[in-house]
Specification:
Elements lengths: L3 E4 L3 H11 L10 H4 L20 E9 L2 E9 L5 E4 L13 E6 L10 E11 L4 E6 L2 H4 L18 E6 L9 E13 L2 E8 L11 E4 L4 E6 L10 E5 H8 L3
Antiparallel strand pairs: 1-3, 2-3, 2-5, 3-4, 4-7, 5-6, 6-7, 8-9, 8-11, 9-10, 10-13, 11-12, 12-13
């Protein structure tokens, strides 16, 4: 599966788990200041000094007290819109679903320490995409949205990074590096997937695929495609914009 399902666990315990213990929070080997590596700047583009870890969140979908799905998501607007995969918010499991995001606004390199309730704005199960929105407007003032890039300008071999929470949201944010390995058609959709050798792990689904300019160029989706081996796939951001009517 591309997401993580937690069975037979009380939701209140999950909240406590996320906010307090976070499963013995794992810290990256380097200190936070040094881990925020410089991104290459494009000519005449706004300076971006660090990987955009403030924009990536844990997405929590509660279908029942016994079944909770956790994945990743990306803040894409200052009014609280969160982009993720549809399978992270899968409505086919239950009509009564509660959605939340967990985030650490002050120290994004550490484990999430705050949970906000979200509403489901739009989704498309065919393209495995969903758009959430944080309900608490006051929280939106503290968010850091990620700029949307242009996936049509990607070239074979371009460097990218994948940002997400691949271990059920219990650890700090994880960054993996790689490059554009090619494209795949998705049915009748030409270049419907971007191939990458950057690892896309369980729980990373719905996170951020970012180019060297710090722009969101796609939604990493951990899927099993025959013959690809360890190659991961990303839904191109230009397709996301069109399907979910995102500017």
């Amino acid at each position: 599966m591309t997401y993580i399902i937690i069975n037979k666990i009380n939701y209140l315990f999950l909240v406590h788990f996320l906010l307090i213990s976070m499963c013995e929070v794992y810290h990256e080997p380097t200190q936070s200041k040094t881990s925020q590596k410089m991104i290459e700047k494009a000519p005449n583009e706004k300076k971006n000094d660090v990987y955009p870890i403030k924009s990536v969140v844990v997405v929590i979908s509660e279908f029942s007290p016994e079944e909770i799905i956790i994945g990743s998501g990306t803040i894409i607007s200052s009014d609280g819109h969160i982009l993720t995969n549809y399978h992270v918010v899968d409505l086919k499991k239950s009509r009564q679903v509660h959605h939340y995001v967990a985030i650490n606004l002050e120290h994004p390199e550490q484990a999430p320490d705050t949970i906000y309730e979200c509403s489901l704005v739009r989704f498309n199960d065919r393209y495995d995409l969903a758009l959430l929105k944080i309900i608490d407007y006051s929280a939106c003032k503290m968010l850091t949205p990620l700029k949307l890039g242009d996936s049509n300008r990607l070239n074979l071999g371009d460097e990218i990074v994948i940002l997400g929470f691949p271990t059920a949201g219990a650890s700090t944010i994880t960054l993996t590096k790689g490059s554009i390995s090619g494209w795949l058609n998705d049915g009748d959709i030409q270049n419907g997937w971007i191939k990458t050798d950057a690892e896309v792990g369980r729980g990373n689904s719905g996170g951020a695929a970012v180019n060297k300019y710090g722009e969101l160029i796609g939604v990493p989706t951990s899927v099993s495609i025959e013959g690809l081996g360890k190659i991961g796939v990303i839904r191109p951001i230009n397709i996301v914009k069109r399907i979910l009517s995102i500017d």
